[in-house]
Specification:
The structure holds two protein chains of two kinds.
Chain A: E1 2-7, E2 15-21, E3 25-30, E4 33-39, E5 43-46, E6 53-57, E7 65-68, H1 71-80, H2 93-122, H3 128-146, E8 150-151, H4 154-170, E9 178-182, E10 189-191, E11 196-200, H5 201-206, H6 210-225, H7 228-246, H8 253-265, H9 270-286, H10 292-304, H11 311-314, H12 320-328, H13 341-348
Parallel strand pairs in A: 9-11
Antiparallel strand pairs in A: 1-2, 1-7, 2-3, 3-4, 5-6, 6-7, 8-9, 10-11
Helix pairs in contact in A: 2-7, 3-8, 4-6, 4-13, 6-9, 6-10, 7-8, 10-12
Chain B: H1 2-5, E1 11-16, H2 20-33, H3 42-56, E2 57-59, E3 62-63, E4 65-66, H4 70-98, H5 107-130, E5 132-134, E6 137-141, H6 145-161, H7 167-180, E7 182-184, E8 187-191, H8 195-226, H9 231-264, E9 265-267, E10 270-274, H10 278-316, H11 323-362, E11 363-366, H12 384-391
Antiparallel strand pairs in B: 1-2, 1-11, 2-3, 4-5, 5-6, 6-7, 7-8, 8-9, 9-10, 10-11
Helix pairs in contact in B: 2-3, 2-11, 3-4, 4-12, 5-6, 5-12, 6-7, 7-8, 8-9, 9-10, 10-11
Classes of the chains: A alpha+beta, B alpha+beta.
Chain lengths: 356, 398
């Protein structure tokens, strides 16, 4: 039997009590009278200063505390009270790790499965005017990333306008495509939300004839028609927002930058790509031109590529199946050339600024 | 007035008796667990640290007790996310749609976060105070987070307009609001510190700070205009010097302010005093800075060596992609995580535990007899504030 300090949890009065530890209970006496008796199996330990054993009743709402400093008493308590650390206080590290991993997995599944589904369903609901505004914002980012100038030598621009209007006439779109050539050496073409299409000079250089370029443009117009860019932007920004959350970036400020970067080299879904191919083939056939040159151009890029892979190819290397689709479809009646030889030359030279 | 009356009172020093080795062991183990839990373990680590610090703090041989749980603050964090994420998503959508036309579209967002930060700080304090038990009685708080946020924001206006000169008075006003809404059981707290008293102790620091900033501005202007060759070296020296000055000034300011805050605390006749020295605080900051710099240098050296071996390895192996680059990425990620976690350990060891021990050890309490009459009252507050504080990443310190 030794002395201990007792607080009843109702007043802050410090009471020095005699503690008797039995196998069944801790009995507290003050001036010879019992003031409390705690059943041993209901006693819990609380954090306290080194050397002090602080005890309290099982009920977490009770703040009654008993500070035991006598080493002999402490040993007695440890011997008789076997549930000192049972209850809410004891949380296994394994469980914390498990649930953290589960939460992380759920975030990743949401990011890569739920967000694409949501984007798929939500994109058609976005008004065209809003898509145009989004497109303008993305355009600014893209121009910043590329740092390249758009090309508009007058003769070339006229040829491009003619080609664009011919393609639009057979491939009507709610969002008007707006094609521009950009002076980048990468062979690529991208469609932004809101209808802007960038044809990279590198691709124009690699093309032998206008039909190949027309096919690529019709393919991009297909993406514009089906609002694939908007869908992809919504998907990538949602995904990067969720992943950012995981790494503590609650603001999502990184997400928008990441999302616009993805516009450059991220891929459309396989279905979106097939649909755009269909659009290109249908447009070319309607104009009485063969879609084959486009397929050849893509496979040539595919073979010779060792730098960054253009978006048209990155999702899936140009399969023979895809090439065959282009090759086996031939127009029933051959139409007139899309551009004259002079216009084609002018288009290829659209980035050459003539010195006055 | 209070200073003159103080010596008559029997005063008892507080002491900090937490075991350093135990703390370090807990800190290292907890920090390592942050990796496999993607940071979620921080709620448990914070709770364990608080339990340790509270338990090590003794007043007349009685230690404080922290009764908060990690689950509570995790729930608070999740509620905070439920509030913040929609705000961010709306902002995200608005900035995409309007981004072009209105370059200031994000100002309302900062406004909202600013208010929420103040609200969260008060609610975090309410949470921590109401999880503090002493002599079987709960500390607790009333007062509204919004009411405090409103007052705090109003106070920021004169502080901004006077370049911080009005701070002592606004701080006294806000501290009075906090302390008058703080209770120990049935005993209401109060704050006796005055703005002018703090001003008398910090004006020279303010003067030093403003002069220093002006000199620094002029030097930078001079450097950018005069010698284009040695700019890099000069800028490095200036930055280093500026960091040292700022650390010194903020440590000195923190010491003076802490002492003023502690000495203003009243619970009826119970009053606190503190003999916190500026030099002790500065020394603590010097130690912390030394370890921060050492850790940073070690990791910088390690990453340079790693980058060099990678380059050598790649030139040997024909720049092949595949396993080599995969392993390199994994090593980089692990290295980065270790770096961040080591910085966290230094921060928590010196600026959480060290600061707590330094401040606690400086305090003496007078008239503790008055506590004998205190009766239990009040209840625990919710943990939303803690969650907001965590999500917005500002430490809601007690």
């Amino acid at each position: 039997m030794g002395l201990a300090v007792f607080y009843d949890g109702k007043t802050a009065r410090r009471r020095v009590v005699s503690l008797v530890v039995t196998t069944a209970s801790l009995d507290l006496y003050e001036d010879g009278e019992t003031i409390a008796s705690w059943p041993c199996n209901q006693v819990r330990q609380h954090p306290a200063a080194p050397g002090v054993l602080r005890l309290g009743p099982e009920n977490p709402n009770s703040l009654a505390r008993l500070d035991v400093t006598d080493a002999g008493d402490q040993a007695e308590v440890f011997r008789n009270c076997l549930f000192l650390t049972t209850g809410a206080r004891k949380e296994s590290t394994g469980r914390i790790v498990f649930w953290s991993l589960a939460a992380t997995a759920s975030l990743i599944v949401s990011a890569y499965v739920l967000v694409p589904i949501l984007a798929e369903k939500a994109a058609p609901l976005v008004p065209v005017s809003v898509e145009k505004q989004i497109g303008a914002a993305v355009d600014k980012q893209i121009q910043f990333i590329l740092g390249e100038k758009t090309c508009n030598a007058p003769a070339g621009a006229a040829a491009l306008a003619k080609l664009s209007s011919r393609l639009s006439s057979v491939s009507p779109s709610k969002i008007a495509p707006e094609i521009q050539v950009i002076s980048s050496k990468i062979p690529n073409a991208i469609a932004l939300p809101g209808g802007r299409i960038y044809l990279f000079k590198g691709l124009l250089d690699k093309a032998d004839n206008v039909d190949a370029i027309a096919g690529v443009l019709a393919h991009e117009i297909g993406h514009v028609r089906h609002r694939d860019s908007l869908r992809r932007l919504m998907q990538t920004s949602g995904t990067s927002f969720l992943l950012g959350l995981l790494f503590g970036d609650v603001t999502g400020s990184g997400a928008i930058i990441l999302a616009t970067r993805m516009m450059m080299d991220g891929a459309y879904s396989r279905d979106a790509e097939r649909q755009a191919d269909e659009n290109a083939i249908a447009a070319m056939l309607a104009l009485g031109r063969s879609p084959r040159p486009m397929g050849l151009l893509l496979s040539e890029i595919d073979k010779g590529e060792n730098g960054p892979i253009p978006s048209m190819l990155s999702s899936h290397p140009l399969t023979t199946e895809r090439l065959e689709t282009f090759s086996k479809r031939t127009p029933t009646k051959e139409g007139e050339p899309l551009l004259s030889n002079e216009e084609w030359t002018a288009l290829k030279g659209i980035c050459e600024v003539k010195e006055p | 007035m209070t200073a003159a009356a103080a010596p008559e009172r029997p005063s008892t020093p507080l002491s900090y008796s937490g075991n350093d080795d135990d703390f370090l062991r807990m800190l290292f183990k907890g920090s390592l667990l942050l990796i496999p839990t993607f940071g979620f373990y921080r709620f448990w680590l914070i709770t364990k640290i608080r339990q340790h610090l509270w338990a090590g703090t003794q007043i007349e041989g009685e230690s404080l007790e922290y009764t908060g749980t990690a689950k509570e603050i995790l729930i608070g964090f999740l509620i905070a996310l439920a509030i913040l994420v929609p705000i961010y998503i709306v902002y995200f959508a608005i900035s995409i749609v309007l981004g072009e036309k209105t370059p200031f579209a994000n100002i309302p967002l900062f406004g909202i976060l600013y208010v929420l930060a103040r609200f969260g700080a008060y609610r975090a304090r309410r949470y921590q105070v109401s999880r503090t038990i002493f002599r079987g009685i709960r500390f607790w708080m009333t007062g509204s987070g919004w009411g405090y946020a409103f007052r705090a924001i109003l106070c920021d206006i004169p502080v901004l307009l006077t370049l911080g000169l009005a701070y002592p008075w606004t701080a006294a006003f806000l501290e009075r609001y906090k302390m008058r809404h703080t209770y120990f059981g049935s005993l209401q707290g109060d704050f006796a510190g005055t703005g002018s008293a703090l001003f008398q102790r910090v004006w020279w620091l303010w003067l030093l700070g403003v002069t220093g900033a002006a000199v620094l501005g002029l030097t930078i202007w001079g450097v950018t205009h005069l010698d284009p060759k040695d700019q890099a070296g000069m800028i490095f020296l200036i930055t280093l010097f500026a960091i040292l000055c700022v650390s010194f000034l903020s440590a000195a300011f923190l010491a003076v302010r802490s002492r003023w805050l502690i000495e203003g605390i009243r619970f009826a006749d119970v009053a606190l005093s503190s003999n916190l020295r500026k030099r002790n605080m500065v020394w603590l900051y010097v130690k912390a800075m030394f370890w921060f710099l050492t850790v940073a240098l070690v990791f910088l050296a390690a990453s340079v060596i790693f980058a060099m071996t990678k380059m050598l390895g790649l030139s040997g192996a024909q720049a092949g992609f595949g396993w080599a680059s995969f392993v390199a990425i994994v090593i980089s990620i692990i290295g980065y995580l270790t770096f961040v976690i080591t910085l966290g350990i230094v921060h928590r060891y010196f600026l959480t535990r060290g600061l707590w021990a330094l401040v606690t050890g400086s305090i003496a309490a007078a008239n503790l007899d008055a506590l004998e009459q205190v009766v239990a009252a009040g209840g625990p507050s919710g943990s939303l504030g803690e969650g907001l504080a965590d999500a917005l990443d500002f430490g809601g310190g007690l």
